[in-house]
Target: Glutamyl-tRNA(Gln) amidotransferase subunit A
Amino acid sequence: EHYIRQIEDQNPKVNAYVDTDFDAARTRAEEVQKKIDNGTSGKLAGVVMGIKDVISERGKKLTCASKMLESFESVYDATVIERLKNEDAILIGRLNMDEFAMGSANEYSNFGPVKNPHDPTKVPGGSSGGSAAAVAADMAMVTLGSDTGGSIRQPASYCGVVGLKPTYGRVSRYGLVAFASSFDCIGPLAHSVEDAARVLEVIAGFDEMDNTSSQIEKEDYVYAAQNPRKNIKIGVPDEFFGEGLDEEIKTGVNKVLEDLEADGAELVPVKLPHTKYGIATYYVLATAEASSNLARYDGIRYGHRADKDEMLDELKKEEKALKEQFEIAEGDAKVEIQEKLAKLDTPLIRLYKKSRTEGFGDEVKRRIMLGTYVLSAGYYDAYYGKAQKVRRLIQDDYKEAFKNVDVIVSPTAPTTAFELGSKQDDPIQMYLNDVYTISANLAGICGISVPVGTHSNGLPYGIQFVADSFQETKILNAGRLVE
Ligand code: GLN
Model:
């Protein structure tokens, strides 16, 4: 009842939820209460959660905040949802996001932007902006988000909550709508490191339905969050404390590091020389994968379908106009018109074009065009092939650094939450926000953002710890030390 009241009160201002089902949540709460009473309840009994609208929940809408999937309903539960349900979590609603998880401000949503609960004139970050804002405004205890290039950690930093991106392959992607399949990860956003650990414990682990799911045993995440070691080795990369970083955030993060050192941690300088290519590399590879993944929305098998009669009408009119021109044209012009007539779309192709034109927003279209470009013959080696090689170099940088340290630290984002609308027309500026978070996705390693301060502008900011693959206990440990 508390969370229902919070949602009724806060959501009209924040716009974090795009759909809620209070009746179902109440019924579920009663069932769980019975289980609690007779001692058979699961690990997340009574934990009220919201789910990013990119993860399938049977019988619920799955829109990805896109007009393309406006009326699509999930026919099965994602593995993470099945696991949450088995442990008696209460799923209360679906959370707003950037369309198809593409963005860093949650402004590219068919449902309108999410507002930062700390200041409604600011963005909450993205793409899991709804997931971060819902926790920050106490509209859920924990939420699930997805992180392809920073989308859990960056909004966590902007909204002052904890956000954890697991190692690629640690949490099943089965039932997560694909954006960039070699990057996509599901993870929790929470009020505390321990809460994040409790959810991770439930959702992590091998799943035969995801062929990139790892067989490596999971560790005791809750224990790690409850019993942090103080004498850890923390790598400090120069590359992440340089130009573009807000001075106050830099000072704040350095102060946290001094405190950690005073408490027994060892600070070790590390080098990550290729991370400066992270953003460029990511935006080549992620758009390439996206262009392929999003080809399925053809308005035939999935997604928004343009009005057929209107489309046929349009096509007929074009044909008629061309034929009329042909009649009166002469010479070269006649040949040109003839060529146009020959190239006129078939009805099926036109339906596909029109459906996608209407169904996708501008940012998604931009990504599809970029992605198809870098994959096209003649450019593939120069862009896609090259980016794959740089991705390997970035992975190698981390591998080398982790030989000497437990975790690597950085600010989560270079600034606090920015003004709504201020970067919407400048995609490059928007992409630059991901500078500290994106290389963990390229390397496939795990990372956490934990709030550590409030800027003089009144907004929160986070610190990020990343650790090698399947070393989630190390980021939970470090995260807990700075809480
Ligand atoms: N900002 C990044 C992008 O737009 C992150 C997306 C994500 O992690 N889902 O691609």
About this structure: The first helix runs from residue 2 to 14. The mean pLDDT is 97. The radius of gyration is 24 Å. Residues 292-385 form one domain.
